Fold:
Amino acid sequence: MNILLADDHVLFRSGMRYILAELGEDMEIDEVGTGEELVAAARKNSYDLVLMDMLMPGMNQCDVITTIKDLHPSLPIIIISMLDSSSVIRSAVAAGASGFIPKTSTSEIMTEAIRLVLAGGVYLPPAVLGPEGEGRQDEDSPASSLSDAHLTRQQRAVLAELSLGKSNKEIAQSLAISEATVKVHLAAIMRTLKVRNRTQVVLAAREHNLLS
Structure:
């Protein structure tokens, strides 16, 4: 497994190496400290996972995420940051991040979150979004209601499974449907919620109480 670790603090990168070792994988880890170095490494090499901070010097980090996703659409990107407001999380997810882990998280949470994303799931911090799925709103970002979004019973079932971090294959097995049917339902859910990827689906669903 090849991992690209981006953070401008050497001490934090050293700590992340220790956490990544807990995954029990044979891995190669490249380290960079700026947005420009991160993009350059992504252009030059092939990776299985990118872990990056939101406060590195250089390029705007959402632009970095977008650039990397343009280069490698299927490459999972996890943000690990001290910034954990709902607006920051939404911006990272909109740019293409597959997960968001606050730096205040324990090493155990970080490890499980990374495993979840590598398995094709989504990780968003429950401490930020709220235990009942009620996202913490910024004062300048009033929430719009999607509680009346029209989703079929089967689509809601798929949404519930997706919120648990399950892959398409696992959702199909759990609901006794084909993977192709899961993809059709996910596409319909994305259109209804006006989002573009799985991570945004879960974020929107939690923020607007669609998982109750």
In short: Confidence is low (pLDDT under 50) at residues 130-145. Strands lie at 2-6, 28-32, 49-52, 77-81, 99-102.
